[in-house]
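Follow-up to my earlier ticket, as requested here are the two runs.
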Amino acid sequence: YLLGIIHYHLYHRKIAIHHFAKAIENRYLLDGNANIDSYAGLILSYQASHQPEKATHTMKQMMVFARENINSEHIHLARSIQARLWLLQGELKTAVRWQETTDFSSDTGIMFFWLDVPRITRCRVLVKEGSKAGLCKAKEKLKEYLAFNQETRNTPQMIEILLLLARVSQKQGQINEAMTFLGRAVTLAVPGNYICAFITHLTDIADLLKNLSLQGAGEEFTRRILSDFDPCETIDDKNKFDLDPWEINQNLDNPLSRREFEILSHIARGLSNKSVADRLYISPETVKKHSINIYKKLGVHNRQKAAVKAFDLGLFKPGL
């Protein structure tokens, strides 16, 4: 589930789909709302991959799962995700009806890293609907949510909220304010490479992003979104799961040695240096030395980032 979230934010759609599908297979073992959020991730990833039929089919499965558990919170979350999909598929009137008839009074508390939060999705609907009153209401709520998430240092939600605020200000004709919100979102997104949220809003914010890039704010990041990350063609569409990881490694500018490649595969599975050493019959110090070399070659600084980079490059196949 968490690997799905990581790759969702990085806009690695095929890898995200793989992990969310695995999480849903084990949905009865997941704690809290992670099972419903896994459905959200799979639905959104399918939709982003131009597979609306699969997104709709998964949405129906999610509703069955939510209802069979007779869990009011899960049903509330599932309906929010359903409304989100309606928005993405152009069914605005249906989404507006959900927004107007849903009770959000119980939707409180920390937003964590959930991919869908009903309070925020309500604002998405208000922004898309675009009436003067709706935009004012959305702006008021979004500023409230932004302040709350700033206190909890919730970067993913802050980025999404800032992008929605940029869209609200843009629709209200307050372009300078829209640019300020967008600039803040970019500043937060660059360190973690949070690409997906920007791609999702790209149709609406493309002109703002171009202006931001021209001003030199987050120039490399914005250029990457506008140029390299065409919504219809991204690097994960090359289906790196079909390629041999060692062959991919050999084609890198600075390939890993056989031993480094072997150690990286264990690191990517979350094993400690001692566990890796025990498996390979070498000392933990030797593992540490190899790990440092791996980090240098991959351009990262710790084992967590090395694991993510391994997935990103296709050096490690999920589930193997």
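Run two:
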Amino acid sequence: YYDALDAFRIMGIPVEVLPYAPPVNESYLPYNPYHENPDVLKRLIKNKKVLIFPNISGFNQTDSELIKHLLENGGTVIAFGPRIPMGTSYDRSLIFGIEKLDTNKIHNEIIDLHSFDKNFGNNKRWELGRVKLPVWKSTGAKVIAVFEDGSPAVVLNKYGKGKAVSILTDAKTAAQKFPNLVRDIFDDVGIERYVDIIGTNKNTDVAVTKIENGFNVAIINHNDTKLDVTLKPLIKTSFQNSQNWIDLVSNKEIAKLKNNNPLKITVMPKSFRLIRMHE
């Protein structure tokens, strides 16, 4: 989990750690519920939460049922490899649309098959170095990206009304080697994001809040050196309006830009910036 949290810090994407509350009648130590909590399921679906599984090998009965019912009701899950979770009450090949073969291979490149990299130019290939991973095959999932040998690297499977995405490297490798592809996949499956935060690392924390006609973004720099960060708005804006960037600590305007042009800022060592963008 630490590596997964570091991965999202590197990509500048804030995440939540959601505790699984048992049903009220099973709410006693050690909080190992025997039955799925329908209130949790309703809340996840209502709030459009996307569940991220960072290299988890499998789930027990209660968790398996929650994931299966979440997908059946239109939810989204994203699993990072090299382990994709098996379930007690679901078939992994049906949920994720892939099957692991009894072999490993060293990969050195990922190739985007669907031109997802819309926000960062036309790059469709990413160097991995030398990464040893299990080999998978699709059992019905749509292959979004492949390794250099043509085997699946990223797949999307539809189950019920929902979507299950498998990114077959671990989260930290994905964040370090092909973060732009991961961001675009998140956008494609409906994760609600308002700004790309480029230039962060594992020693930073970020938070983003939507406001009317804009957003607030906080960046905390735990490094001993300054951090140069680029903020690229993702929200739809009116063509004729300018986007005003305000430093909420000093309450001073930083810039006035148009057309979702990015803003470059510096965060000093052991410090933070709190910025607002609004039309």
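The only thing I checked on run two: The two ends are 37 Å apart (CA to CA). Let me know what else you need.
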